[in-house]
Amino acid sequence: MHPKQLAAVFALPPEKRFQHFTGMVADREQAWGLYQDGWALACTDDGTKVFPLWPAKEYAQACALDDWAAYEPREIPLGDLMESLLPKLKSDGVLPGILPTPAGKGATPPVDDVMAALEEELRKYC
Fold it and tell me: Could you give the CA distance from residue 117 to residue 53 in angstroms, rounded to a whole number?
């Protein structure tokens, strides 16, 4: 992925990055997280845990900075995301962090919103 494409997506407002995320994840049938002896987590301003997710390895790699510098991008197949990870996040009270940027936070919609958006996007492929 070209660095200018990364920069352009990272410059989008959170709602547009959310749309970009759902489109790419549905198309590529995978999401990405950062992993090192456990998944990278963040927090909202009120202390709610957030599980950062990206639609491509390059986005995750660009965010492997500071506290996450030793983390490596790890693929999350779409089936695992929809059937295991997102339901687990919901039951644990952890929000998905959709496409955070190196300089800021991602959107933190409820799990049900992420599931619904992905399901809607996947219907376009049938």
Answer: 14
